Amino acid sequence: MPSNCRDALIEAAERLFRTRGFHASGIDAVLKEAGVSRMTLYNHFSSKDDLIVAALRRHDERARIAFVRAIEARASDPEERLLAVLAHGRDVCEGSQFCGCLFVNAAAEYSDADDPIRTTGREHKAFVRRYLTKQAEAAGYDQPDHVAMQIQLLFDGLLGISQIEKSSSDKLRPFAKAALEAGRVVLEAAPRGAPA
Predict the structure, then answer these.
(1) Is the dihedral of CA 118, 121, 116, 50 positive or negative?
(2) pLDDT tens-digit series, residues 14-68
(3) Is 30 within 8 Å of 9 (Cβ atoms)?
(4) What is the pTM for the complete model shown?
(5) β strands within the chain, DSSP E
(6) Which string of DSSP letters, residue by residue, matches 27-43?
(7) Exposed/middle/buried for 155, CB within 10 Å: 0-12, 13-18, 19+?
């Protein structure tokens, strides 16, 4: 339960943006969902774009915590964590609330590369890449940043294809299996010395 009107607005906006999209979710719908007045909205946010950024930042904060917890609950070995990312991706895609990557969806609706709305997505993707790089370094890969990028491409690709194909878990399973197989190929082919 939101603790104040600002939180109520952010949570309502995040729900609507995730399920309906950003342009399709008008201010009136957000106000109705949050149960607040237009004056309350503009007391906290100067524009709809400011509200979108706040909702994306809240989503980013929660997604970072959930991502790390899910990976680290699956594996303690850094190499296994790299593969656990893809298993986590499968679980996310099969979830009933999955409507695609909110950051990719935002980027699709806001084309200006310098828009703060797109910047939040870049920051989130950079966080994921840093986490993967850290795991690849700990596993002793010679080019941990390259391994991280490859695993991230598989993870984000799985999210993307799942968004398009989402109609049943049966349709998604072959993609999830292929992503995990490709992840194993990436890790087996990547040169490495001794683990850190």
Answers:
(1) positive
(2) 999 999 999 999 999 999 999 999 999 999 999 999 999 999 999 999 999 999 9
(3) yes
(4) 0.90
(5) none
(6) HHHHHHHHT--HHHHHH
(7) buried
